[in-house]
Specification:
By secondary structure, the protein is of the alpha/beta class. It has helices at about 1-10, 15-25, 25-35, 60-75, 75-80, 95-105, 120-130, 165-175, 195-205, 230-240, 275-280, 315-330, 350-355, 370-380, 410-425, 430-440, 455-470, 530-550; strands at about 45-50, 85-90, 110-115, 135-140, 150-155, 190-195, 220-225, 245, 285-290, 295-300, 310, 340-345, 360-365, 385-390, 395-400, 440-450, 475, 480-485, 500-505, 505-515, 520-530. It has a six-stranded mixed beta sheet, sandwiched between helices. A hairpin with an 8-residue loop joins β4 (about 135-140) and β5.
């Protein structure tokens, strides 16, 4: 089967680069490149770039786009006439893949809007709504290593497509032969977009400001990590009056090789090494960075001893949530109709914060698309509930409904305003975090990720999930499990999902396979009266997990 697929590709590909790559493949490389088709799900496609059915390349991109075109045609000519908007980030081949999307859509008689250069993913989400498009496509692998690229589809509401739409597109893709059934227009007709959408987007982001003046002496270091955030982030900070902003020069310009970092992921502390070095030299108050498609933001803050503390996604999100609610409350009463939305693996500290301010906390499945779906649901119900803030532990945040995906551009603005708010009180963001712990108790969380590649890795991940499901732990790190939540069965009206969560006194533990990478993820969190006790409890769970995986 694998060999047959390989030989077919060798005879059918039309570009010399792919053909040469195929000829140079070892037996093991052929197996890994062709043992399966790259899977299309609610996160679209994501994989290592290269030749083969299990790789990101012009042929898998074309096939996916043909499948999407077929799905669009099922909705009729009027729906298709609204068009598809396409964006791409700084990754290698992103611009090329975006143009391949244009070629296929054009060949199918579907209008394509293409950004004139790289743009953040949240701007794509905004553009779908702004231009009233039927669908959106963004070429990105988000925070993955440089070898990866991806293809994400957005619905007419600007949110990532829900599972039922993804299933229809997948069925269409599977019925589309990668060579025989794909239409390609080598001289496509499309509309280039840029400044007008940029301006409208920045206006929408600026409307989410909490109105905090940025002091001139607040020093800020920003790194785009070679991605798409450079221009929009600098622009929004300039428009809110942040004057003391310094961009890391080595990481300023787009570069798909990401030469200064092992991985362009703000979740990895190492990504901030160069930025923090600059911060130390300049005695900066705040450091933050955005990932290649600028939907995630990582933050580091100066402590009183001059060192820098890198906040977790949970810590940044909790600080932002409390900052937003506190400042909203100064202007208007808050109620249970005001809603903060988090994912099921995001810190339970949010529950303590929202309870204090009298607003509702809503849990959704892992993935920001589910937050976007909840916003859509509020709109369809006549906005009886007001969306205030959405967040996930993986460094994703959104305030406002102008977009339906996490947005590091709006988050960068809010982080700077929040830092300024504490700065005026003679406090750093780290001091702010400590004050929240004193108020609510110390909540700490951790994520451990195990990577298992290839066919064998996928099987091993499935075996682990089966074992957890059939033999649930009765005790975790000395604490009795009080409740087992198997989201595969459907819980609290949420869609079924391959996630398990175990609740015990003052803590929780969850396990789920990644939907976009060959990984299984273990999340856990604790609450204690002080930081030392919380750290100790977290260490016990980590040791429990290490023993489990040994």
């Amino acid at each position: 089967m694998v060999q047959t697929k390989y030989e077919r590709w060798l005879s059918r590909v039309t570009d010399d680069a792919t053909r040469q790559q195929l000829k140079q493949m070892s037996k093991a490389e052929i197996e890994d490149s062709f043992y399966r088709d790259l899977e299309f799900g609610t996160g679209g496609l994501r994989g290592v770039m290269g030749a083969g059915t299990n790789r990101m390349n012009i042929y898998t991109v074309r096939q996916a786009t043909q499948g999407l075109a077929n799905e669009l045609k099922n909705h009729g000519a009027a729906f298709c006439g609204r068009g598809v908007v396409i964006a791409y980030d700084s990754r290698n081949h992103s611009a090329e893949f975006a143009m391949e999307c244009v070629k296929v859509l054009s060949a199918n008689g579907i209008l394509a809007y293409l950004f004139d250069s790289l743009r953040p993913t949240p701007m794509l989400s905004f553009a779908v709504r702004h231009l009233n498009c039927a669908r959106g496509i963004v070429i990105t692998a988000s925070h993955n290593p440089k070898e990866y690229n991806g293809y994400k589809v957005y619905g007419e509401d600007g949110g990532q497509i829900p599972p039922d739409t993804a299933a229809v597109i997948l069925d269409s893709i599977e019925k589309t032969d990668i060579f025989d059934d794909v239409k390609v227009d080598e001289n496509p007709d499309y509309r280039s977009i840029g400044k007008e959408v940029d301006d409208a987007y920045i206006r929408a982001v600026k409307q989410q400001s909490m109105g905090v003046t940025i002091p001139d002496d607040l020093k800020i270091i920003y790194t785009p990590l070679h991605g798409s955030g450079n221009l929009p982030v600098r622009r929004i900070l300039n428009e809110i009056g942040a004057k003391n902003v310094f961009v890391v020069p080595e990481q300023e310009l787009p570069n798909g090789d990401f030469p200064t970092v092992k991985s362009p992921n703000p979740e990895n502390i190492e990504a901030f090494d160069i930025a923090i070095d600059y911060a130390k030299k300049m005695h900066a108050d705040l450091v933050f960075g955005t990932d290649p498609d600028s939907d995630r933001i990582g933050v580091a803050v100066r402590k009183n001893d001059g060192s820098y503390f890198v906040l977790t996604g949970n810590q940044t999100g909790t600080l932002l949530c409390e900052f937003i609610l506190r400042n909203m409350q100064k202007k208007e009463p808050l109620s249970k109709n005001d809603v903060v939305i988090k994912t099921i693996v995001t810190s339970e500290m949010l529950r303590a914060v929202t309870d204090r301010y009298g607003v509702t906390l809503c849990d959704v499945l892992t993935g920001f698309k589910f937050i976007g779906e909840k916003i859509k649901e509020f709109e369809e119900n006549g906005n009886r509930q007001r969306f205030v803030f959405g967040l996930e532990e993986s460094y994703g945040y959104l305030k406002g409904t102008y977009a339906r995906d996490k947005d590091a551009v709006v988050a960068s603005m809010l982080v700077c305003e929040m830092a300024a708010d504490y700065f005026k009180q003679g406090m750093t963001l780290y001091d702010g975090l400590v004050s929240l712990y004193q108020t609510y108790g110390c909540y700490l969380e951790k994520l451990k990720t195990v990577t298992l590649t290839g066919n064998e890795g996928a099987a091993a991940i499935q075996t682990m999930m089966n074992d957890f499901r059939s033999h649930p732990p009765k005790e975790i790190a000395g604490s009795s499990v009080l409740r087992v939540l198997d989201y595969q069965t459907g819980i609290d009206g949420l869609p079924k999902s391959n996630v398990l969560k175990y609740i015990f006194e003052n803590g929780w533990f969850a396990v789920r396979p990644s939907g976009t990478e060959p990984k299984i993820k273990f999340y856990f969190g604790v609450r204690a009266d002080d930081e030392d006790a919380a750290k100790s409890a977290l260490c016990r769970i980590e040791q429990y997990l290490d023993n489990l995986l040994a």
